Amino acid sequence: MSSSVACPDVGSLRQFAAGQLDSALHQQIATHLAACENCRGLVARLSNSGSFGQPAPETQTELASPANVVDQMAETRVLDDEHAEHETDLRFLEPSANECALGRIGKYDVLGILGRGGMGVVFDAFDDVLHRHVAIKVLTPELSSSAKARRRFLREARAAAAINHPNVIIIHAVDEQNGMPYLVMEYVSGRSLRDRMRRSPQLELIEIVRIGAQIATGLDAAHAQGVIHRDIKPSNVLLEDGIERVKIADFGLARAAMDLDDITTVGQGVGTPAYVSPEQVNGGDVDQRSDLFSFGCLLYAMVDGHSPFRGKLAIDVLRRVADHHPTALAKRDDRIPQWFSDLVDKLLQKDPNKRYQTAREVAAELHEQLVVLNQMPSDRLPKVVKAAAPRPAFRRKRYAGLAALAALAVAAFSYLIILPLLKDRGSQTVTSPLVRHQGVTVTDNRPPSAVVSVSQSGAADFRSLAQAVAEAPPRATIRILDDAVYEGPISLTGDRYAGLHIESPQRATLRSTSSNSPVLSLNGVPNVLVQGLRISASKEQHAVWIGGRLDGAHLVGVECEHPPQAKCGVAVIDQATGAAESPIVIQGCSFTDDYVGLAVLGQPGKPVDWLLVEHCRFQMAGASVGITMENAVEHVTVSHCVVAGEGTASGIHLSENVRDVSILNNTFHRTTDWIGLHGEAANNDVAVRRNLVLESRYIIAGGTDFQRLVDACLSDNLWELAPGTDESQIRAVCAPRLPPDQLAVVSRDPDDAAYLQPLADSPITGLRDENGSNFIGAIPPGGDPPHHD
């Protein structure tokens, strides 16, 4: 929707975002923003740029904050750190009348830099004629200095501009300014598939097929125009916010780098090593089937977490591309259907004649299977459900083996005896007796109940999630069929919603702009499951609030996000308790925040009791904390989680009144302090064991003797001696076996799909303990996800 009133200029909107206008003008623009979607998006971008103050407090307008555009550049080769961080030369920009702009390219005001890569820089720009945001890519000075590379860039960009398809980035214009060629693209608010995989390393099959079908369709449209991509990889696939529609970026632009003699040697192929085709490695003819091989690598990575071709050096990777045939996916993971494994295997054939010959064939097969998956009943869909787990391990050592055998017997009985007896009632039943997620086998003992569907297309029982929640029968499963944005808040309170499941296989987004109430509230609801949602909160809202007695509540595969400068925790557990047989489980979730990722808050007489947090990721910025536990908190286990920080972010903090807490097999990266223990931790059964600590500087030990704290609480942790580390602390914690200065992991780049995955020869292996772990940290050597059978 657009306002009929003339839109303010960019300078005024920037001043509005910075809170620099007087009250009258501020209110005038706020009124305009309520009606103008374009200006709303622009102000949200300006607010998130990090260089301006907060909007004036008088405004009551809630502005959605689109995610940063990530990595729209074809990174054709690895740059060294010095080059990657080199300041961008802006001398080619023309002066702009807008004092808030960096300069001007053609008719576009350049507002900031979205990213840098091996080929160039992508700028955030504004078209003040058509009043829209655009992304402008400019070649690096090294490439621009080559006349041949400039000609190739312009030629390939113009060819790509002929592609008109919803799954391909639209190129609006191609031109040159002061010897610097550039192309103007549509601005996509969202994130790359690489970032999506980083936050959710194990995607569900229905998501993989949906995304893959769109990629294949986009490739088919490009190939029909005679354009070959040559660099298909996760970072060149963008996912649009809200609907996660695929947009393929950088068609054909990798070839421009071939013509720069001082960077590219004669005969060298183009592309990212782990995703190139054998013919690119061998210098052979490249056609559309080369893109299909790279597409096969991408599909494999979406299942396995990384390309099938890996090595310590680029030359090792290229040799494996040329000579090694990877293990079929169905053999690596028995949950992968044979048809999908065969499809990927055919795409990865070394001989192009043995692959699929067109992207259209692949798209047709994926679309056909997507229809089947969308029509499957709940018990047939891949799920991420974690059932009730035992109390922390140190309370059950004597009976651990017996309990494991009993659990296995129950699961086997359920699978072999109960499942065949349950009749399939199509969309009217829910029977999920055996479910697996990241190697965890669990049981869902709910009796069959109704399944109600939600989709904004209308081909479902409800268009609104809120209406479905209000009208669903008891113990129902609400399945969201699309990946649209749904309005909250959603509040589940009391036994009315006992046993309710909300499933979102295609990652629908839930948000609420109407109030500061939590976007999703769970209050005293036993056996509730929320699975697969993306929850986006404003900076003054909790994404999720959990309170009261929640026997067996599960939050699984949920993504919680705050915009920058948040003022509250993104997820809060407040005076919530499990039950004698069922803890509260948070599993496979991600939390992105610059305040607190997960706050666990108890009160005297109302403790948070029995909580499991497993396989989660906390991405923190600023002076934030990944997990904090305060006041009365008991019987908590945090295991196999990654807590990563920037700035002055902290890892996990425990207050003096926590009891029976285990921090096991987690990885901490770039946190100033990685663990904070206060008060009586040494006397309160707190165990901090088998954690991997990278680029983190110290431990907070409040109100207790440090060495006594270490002796009582910490054991078998690996903590590297990195710059800025408190050496006295690390020697107290890790002596006599101080780990090497740099512990061997594949990547320390949070945007890399192999982020924090230890190499196979990493020194993190250790003796198997009573929990079954034979490694230290969240991820075992070799990068495979941890399994508990």
Describe the structure.
- The chain is an alpha/beta fold and 789 residues long.
- It contains 18 helices and 41 strands.
- The strands form 6 sheets. The protein has an 11-stranded parallel sheet with strand order 12-13-16-19-22-25-28-31-34-37-40.
- Residues 48-86, 257-270, 378-448 and 785-789 have low confidence and may be disordered.
Fold topology:
Blueprint: H1 10-18, H2 23-35, H3 37-47, H4 81-84, E1 103-105, E2 108-116, E3 120-127, E4 132-139, H5 141-144, H6 147-161, E5 171-177, E6 180-186, E7 190-192, H7 193-199, H8 205-224, E8 237-240, E9 246-248, H9 278-281, H10 288-304, H11 314-323, H12 329-332, H13 338-347, H14 359-374, H15 400-421, E10 435-437, E11 440-442, E12 451-454, H16 465-471, E13 477-480, E14 485-487, E15 490-493, E16 501-503, E17 509-511, E18 520-523, E19 529-531, E20 534-536, E21 544-549, E22 554-556, E23 559-561, E24 571-577, E25 584-587, E26 590-593, E27 596-601, E28 608-614, E29 617-620, E30 625-630, E31 633-639, E32 642-644, E33 650-654, E34 658-664, E35 667-669, E36 673-678, E37 686-689, E38 692-694, E39 698-702, H17 706-713, E40 714-715, E41 718-719, H18 727-734
Parallel strand pairs: 12-13, 13-16, 14-17, 15-18, 16-19, 17-20, 18-21, 19-22, 20-23, 21-24, 22-25, 23-26, 24-27, 25-28, 26-29, 27-30, 28-31, 29-32, 30-33, 31-34, 32-35, 33-36, 34-37, 35-38, 36-39, 37-40, 38-41
Antiparallel strand pairs: 1-2, 2-3, 3-4, 4-6, 5-6, 7-8, 8-9, 10-11
